[in-house]
Specification:
Layout (H helix, E strand, L loop, with lengths): L1 E2 L11 H15 L4 E2 L2 H4 L5 H24 L2 E2 L3 E8 L2 E7 L13 H14 L5 E7 L3 E8 L2 H9 L12 H13 L6 E7 L10 H11 L3 E6 L3 E9 L5 E8 L3 H11 L2 E5 L2 H12 L6 E8 L4 H19 L6 E2 L1
Parallel strand pairs: 5-6, 5-8, 8-9, 9-12
Antiparallel strand pairs: 1-3, 2-14, 4-13, 6-7, 10-11
Helix pairs in contact: 3-10, 4-5, 4-9, 6-7, 7-8
Length: 329
């Protein structure tokens, strides 16, 4: 065990002086006869008589425990080698208005966000990042091992922050830019989209060719059903959308070629159950990449000292004002 702030322990040097001063003042102050029970006057020494001799020391132990808690006791830092399957993953999520379509409940984007958060929680040793794309693309979160931060970004995803459209190639290219800087041996792009490419200066096939050259596969999840779907048709002045039933187009062939060109795979999800199965399969991919990570851990122990001090203080007060209460005559 070690202490994060050991200078507080110097206060323990004052305890002997305080105890000496307390005992001297006690002798001067108590000039009358003090007994706890009438039996003591007859020379009968009960447990109460003995307890009176050591009850004062509980208070000093409490003070010592509080001082030690202030010094923040910790378990010694230790290092453990973790052999884990680690992959750098960039999530590229479509945030075009069509992601609010209601063939999923409550809508496509909500289900995609929920599944992505769950996926991130099951990747403890990976570095993950987030790219959002619609008519353009931008990095919402670079590669990080902090899953809570990434999950917060995913939960905060909203439609309408980018121009309308589906710039699939731009989304892939933005993700590749981050993965290209990574030193990890295992890398992949997980693309989640519900529509056909219709915006941006870079096509998805061109981006997939660049991904193949970098050795980064693209796994594409096509989200949405065919046919008539309740979808956004117009955005109001306050940013809200009006919905109507309209025919949805889905360019499955282009997405399939994009994934295949990069060395990845295309999945089609028409229901929430389909999406759950796809994520389960994606979790088992790219697991030939093995890495070793040195993990440092420590545990704070101050609360144990505070708990012990609190319990002893309650014991001391209950005894002092209970069976050991002094009767002064």
């Amino acid at each position: 065990m070690t202490f994060a702030q050991p200078l507080w322990l110097l206060l323990l040097l004052l305890l002997p002086l305080l105890m000496f001063q307390y005992r001297r003042d006690t002798r001067r102050r108590h000039v009358t006869l003090q007994v706890s029970r009438l039996q003591a006057m007859r020379g009968v020494k009960t447990w109460v008589v003995y307890a009176r001799n050591w009850i004062q020391y509980i208070r000093w132990v409490v003070i010592a425990l509080v001082v030690m808690a202030m010094a923040r006791p910790q378990l010694l830092w230790h290092e453990e080698e973790v052999v884990a399957e680690s992959v750098d993953i960039m999530l590229a999520m479509d945030v075009s208005p069509s992601m609010l379509s209601r063939d999923f409940l409550p809508d496509r984007l909500s289900v995609a966000k929920e599944m992505a958060v769950s996926f991130v929680s099951r990747r403890p040793y990976d570095q993950l990042g987030l790219v959002l794309f619609s008519g353009g693309a931008f990095t919402q979160c670079p590669l990080t091992s902090d899953r809570r931060i990434l999950q917060a970004f995913i939960n905060n995803i909203q439609v309408g922050r980018l121009p309308d459209g589906t710039a699939t190639g731009m989304g892939i290219a933005t993700a590749l830019r981050h993965l290209d800087k990574s030193t990890s041996k295992g890398k992949m792009v997980l693309l989640i989209t519900d529509g056909e490419h219709n915006a941006g200066d870079l096509g998805p096939l061109t981006a997939a060719t660049a991904a193949k050259a970098l050795g980064i596969p693209i796994y594409v999840i096509g989200l949405g059903s065919d046919g008539m779907v309740m979808s956004p048709v117009q955005q109001g002045p306050l940013g809200t959308y009006s919905f109507a039933s309209r025919e949805m187009k889905f360019d499955a062939e282009l997405l399939n070629r994009t994934a295949a060109t990069s060395g990845g795979k295309f999945y089609r999800a028409k229901t929430t159950a389909d999406l759950e199965k796809i994520y389960s399969e994606v979790e088992s991919l790219e697991k030939t990449k093995v890495t070793k990570k040195a993990v440092k851990r420590t545990s704070e122990l101050f609360f144990w000292f505070l708990n012990a001090a609190f319990c002893l203080l309650l014991l001391e007060l209950s005894l002092r004002w209970g069976p050991l209460r002094v009767i002064t005559v």
